[in-house]
Automatic annotation (TrEMBL):
Listed GO MF terms: diguanylate cyclase activity
PANTHER family for the chain: BIOFILM ARCHITECTURE MAINTENANCE PROTEIN MBAA, DIGUANYLATE CYCLASE DGCP
NCBIfam families: GGDEF (TIGR00254), sensory_box (TIGR00229)
Protein name: Diguanylate cyclase
Entry-linked Pfam families: GGDEF, PAS, Response_reg
Entry's EC annotation: 2.7.7.65
Domain of life: Bacteria
GO biological process terms, semicolon-separated: phosphorelay signal transduction system; regulation of DNA-templated transcription
The PAC domain, residue ranges: 210-262
Species of origin: Cyanomargarita calcarea GSE-NOS-MK-12-04C
Occurrences of domain PAS (ranges): 132-206
Domain GGDEF: 295-428
Class of enzymatic activity (EC top level): transferase
Keyword Ion transport in record: no
Length: 431
C-alpha cells in the first residue's frame, strides 16, 4: 500500500522544509511544498494528495480558511492546520475551530504523526459515514412508496419524492410543519377529518394501519385514496422519537376492487344487479318485514316472449342489444326504491318495495308490458318483444327469498300458458 501523500502549504520556507523532512521520516510522502493558497489549490488538482497541511496564518489573496473550504468542498480532501496557542485562542473565540483539526507549533514528530493519522482516520470515517448516509438516502428516495418522517411533536422532518408528489408539498416547504397541515386526511365516506395518526401511533407505541376509506387531500385540492401504515420511531434506548408514515396511492386498487365487486354482483351485459345481488336485496326486504309488520313487498318474474327465435334468426349480437334495451325500459318503469335484475338469459326479476297491495304490483306489470309494445330499432331493423310476468307478494307468509322467487317463476309460466304478453298472480295459481 502506498504511503499517504501530504501537501505542505507554509509561507516560511525553512519551516516548510523541516515539516517535509519530518513527514518523510514518519513514512509519509511529501513531494510538494507551496507557499500560497492559489498555488495550493492548483497542486491539489494536479497531485490529489491524501491530506493538506497548512499554516493557519497563510497570507495571500486566498487565506488559509478559504483555501481549506475549497479543498474540502471541491476535492473532498482533509486539511490539517498548523497553528500556535495564541492563534488557537482567537479561533476558539470566533468558533472557527469545530470543522478542523490542528497541530500546535512547535511540535514533536510523534505529535505530528498522531495529528496526521487522526486526521486521515477521521476523514475515512466521515467518508464511510457519508457513503452510508448517501446509500440510505438513495434507498429512501428510490422507494416506490411515499415515506414521511416526523419528530416526536409530529412535525415534518423528511419526505421522499413520492410523498412530495402525492401531497403536493416540497420538503423545504413542509419541513417543521405539523403533519396534519401537510398530510390532510379525511374519511372518504363521511368526509370527516382523520385525527393526527402520528400522535396516535406514538401514544400507543405500536404500528397502525391507515384507517379504512382514507382520503388524502393534496395541496392543490386533489383527492387521492391512500393506504398502508404508520409506525413509531425509537432510538437505541427504545424511546419514541418520532413516527414514519408509509403510504401509496391506491386509486388503481380501489378501481380493481370496485370492478371485482361489480363483476360479482352486477350483470356484465346490461349492468343490472345479478341474481346474487337481487336475492340479497330480497333478504333485506324480509328483514324489514320483521321490524315493520305493515311493510309489504312484491316480486315480478319476467321472461321475454319469443326471445330464442330472435336470437336464432338475427344472431347473439342482436339478441344482446335487445336485452340491453329491454333492461333500460324495465328500469324506466320502476319507482326509485325498486330493483330490477337480470337473473340470466332473457329472465328478469323486479323487487317492488313498500307496496300497499296487489294493485301496486299489477300496475307496474301493466306499465312494463305497455313499455315493451313500442318497437325497438337496431340498424334500420325493427324488433318488438313482449313479456310474460309472474307476481308473488310477501303477504302470503313466505319465510325465505327462494320460495317467493320460485312462486313468482311459477306464476310467470302460468302467464305464458295463457297466451304470452300476460301477467299472472301466484295466488290465482293455487286458488
Amino acid at each position: 500500500m502506498d504511503s499517504p501523500k501530504i501537501l505542505v502549504v507554509e509561507g516560511e520556507k525553512i519551516l516548510a522544509v523541516d515539516i517535509k523532512n519530518s513527514l518523510q521520516k514518519l513514512g509519509y510522502t511529501a513531494p510538494e511544498i507551496t507557499n500560497s493558497g492559489e498555488e495550493a489549490i492548483k497542486k491539489v488538482a494536479e497531485t490529489h494528495p491524501n491530506l493538506v497541511l497548512v499554516d493557519i496564518c497563510l497570507a495571500g489573496k486566498i487565506n488559509a480558511k478559504d483555501m481549506a473550504d475549497i479543498i474540502r468542498k471541491d476535492f473532498h480532501i482533509p486539511v490539517l492546520y498548523l497553528t500556535d496557542y495564541s492563534e488557537d485562542i482567537r479561533l476558539r473565540k470566533n468558533r472557527l475551530d469545530e470543522p478542523f483539526s490542528y497541530i500546535f507549533n512547535p511540535f514533536a514528530e510523534r505529535d505530528l504523526h498522531m495529528a496526521v493519522e487522526t486526521t486521515l482516520y477521521k476523514h475515512q470515517v466521515e467518508k464511510r459515514l457519508q457513503e452510508e448516509n448517501q446509500s440510505l438516502a438513495d434507498i429512501f428516495n428510490s422507494m416506490s412508496y411515499a415515506v414521511l418522517v416526523t419528530d416526536v411533536n409530529a412535525c415534518i422532518q423528511r419526505m421522499n419524492p413520492i410523498a412530495e408528489t402525492l401531497t403536493g408539498w416540497k420538503l423545504h416547504e413542509a419541513f417543521g410543519k405539523d403533519l396534519v397541515e401537510v398530510l390532510q386526511l379525511i374519511d372518504q365516506e363521511t368526509g370527516e377529518d382523520i385525527e393526527n395518526i402520528a400522535i396516535q401511533v406514538m401514544v400507543e407505541g405500536t404500528v397502525m394501519p391507515l384507517p379504512e376509506n382514507c382520503m388524502l387531500i393534496s395541496k392543490d385540492g386533489k383527492e387521492i385514496p391512500i393506504g398502508d401504515s404508520v409506525a413509531p420511531i425509537r432510538d437505541i434506548d427504545g424511546n419514541i422519537i418520532g413516527a414514519v408514515l408509509v403510504f401509496q396511492d391506491i386509486t388503481q386498487r380501489k378501481q380493481v376492487e370496485a370492478q371485482l365487486l361489480r363483476n360479482a354482483f352486477y350483470d356484465g351485459l346490461t349492468g343490472l344487479p345479478n341474481r346474487i345481488l337481487f336475492l340479497d336485496r330480497l333478504r333485506q326486504a324480509f328483514e324489514r318485514v320483521k321490524r315493520r309488520n305493515s311493510y309489504r313487498f312484491g316480486v315480478l318474474f319476467i321472461d321475454l316472449d319469443g326471445f330464442k327465435g330472435i336470437n336464432d334468426r338475427f344472431g347473439h349480437g342482436m339478441g344482446d342489444d335487445l336485452l340491453v334495451a329491454t333492461a333500460q325500459r324495465l328500469e324506466s318503469c320502476l319507482r326509485s326504491g325498486d330493483t330490477v335484475a337480470r337473473l340470466g338469459g332473457d329472465e328478469f326479476a323486479v323487487l317492488l318495495q313498500d307496496i300497499k297491495g296487489l294493485s301496486d304490483a299489477t300496475n307496474i306489470a301493466k306499465r312494463i308490458q305497455e313499455s315493451l309494445k313500442t318497437p325497438l330499432n337496431f340498424d334500420e331493423l325493427e324488433l318488438m318483444t313482449t313479456a310474460s310476468i309472474g307476481i308473488a307478494l310477501s303477504s302470503n307468509g313466505y319465510e325465505d327469498p327462494g320460495s317467493l322467487l320460485r312462486d313468482a317463476d311459477t306464476a310467470m309460466y302460468r302467464a305464458k300458458q295463457q297466451g304470452k304478453a300476460n301477467y299472472a298472480i301466484f295466488e290465482e295459481v293455487v286458488g
